[in-house]
TrEMBL record:
Its EC number is 2.1.1.163. It is an enzyme of class 2 (transferase). This is Demethylmenaquinone methyltransferase. GO terms for molecular function: demethylmenaquinone methyltransferase activity. Residues 51-145 form the Methyltransferase domain. The keyword Methyltransferase applies. It comes from Aquisphaera giovannonii. The keyword Transferase applies. InterPro entries: Methyltransf_25, SAM-dependent_MTases_sf. The lineage of its organism: Bacteria, Pseudomonadati, Planctomycetota, Planctomycetia, Isosphaerales. It holds the Pfam family Methyltransf_25. Coiled coil: none annotated. GO terms for biological process: methylation. Keywords: Methyltransferase, Transferase.
Length: 232
């Protein structure tokens, strides 16, 4: 049976109660966030920039990138209102520079060419239409902007066992893309200079990065208005 957005939303709604306390924060999410911050800092240096975090959950990465790089303006988007609501205190504390938005990765509610970086950490395997999601991420990036996706590295035997066996058994028919598949997705969406880095460990993960060409054709306006503010 194929995996759809309703299944993803139902799963993350249940997970929202324990998300900030789960062991994956230590095993996978924390290391992933540090890898993203190192890469963004290497590119942006001390310049101000705008970043969209797709699948932002309760806003942990948003808070970490603001702490590491105060010059950042962060927008977090998530499909599941319960996830956003669980991060309400975090959003309120960061309200001057971080905006939470409810929305779908396949229909990002932002104008084309809005962001310098788009990040997506450990949620991409839940996206039913991964091609469409990458195309949308490319659309909202400025010329020269960068997409940074982190997801479980399933190409080796250990990663295959963790992600294609254990995670699939636990979460349903999710799809962890191979490194080759990520290169294909980014290339088909028009990204250049696609680079990848494997981070080893108990929960290995892959960072895939692509750059938007400096000259790109105009793309239609967003699909719907931004809805920000999170109810408790």
């Amino acid at each position: 049976m194929s995996y759809d957005r309703d299944q993803a939303a139902e799963e993350f709604t249940r997970w929202s109660e324990s998300y900030d306390r789960c062991i994956l924060q230590w095993l996978l999410f924390g290391p992933s966030h540090r890898a993203l911050i190192r890469r963004i800092r290497a590119v942006a240096a001390d310049r101000p920039f705008r970043v969209l975090d797709v699948g932002c959950g309760t806003g942990l990465f948003a808070s970490r990138i603001r702490a590491a790089m105060p010059e950042a303006e962060v927008v977090g988007i998530d499909l599941v209102p319960e996830m956003l609501a669980k991060g309400r205190r975090r959003w309120e504390f960061l309200a001057d520079n971080v905006i939470p938005v409810r929305g779908d990765s396949e229909r990002l509610p932002f104008a084309s060419g809005t962001f310098d970086f788009v990040t997506c950490a450990n949620s991409f395997h839940h996206y039913p239409n991964q091609e469409r999601a990458v195309q949308e991420m490319q659309r909202v990036l400025r010329p020269g902007g960068r997409l940074l996706i982190i997801d479980g590295y399933r190409d080796g035997p250990w990663g295959w066992f963790i992600y294609d066996v254990c995670v699939t058994f636990r979460e349903g028919n999710v799809h962890h893309a191979s490194s080759r598949r990520f290169r294909e997705l980014m290339g088909a969406a028009g990204f250049q200079a696609v680079a990848q880095k494997v981070h080893r460990g108990f929960a290995p993960f892959l960072l895939s990065e692509g750059v938007v060409p400096e000259s790109i054709p105009s793309i239609p306006a967003p699909h719907f208005r931004v809805r920000q503010a999170v109810d408790a």
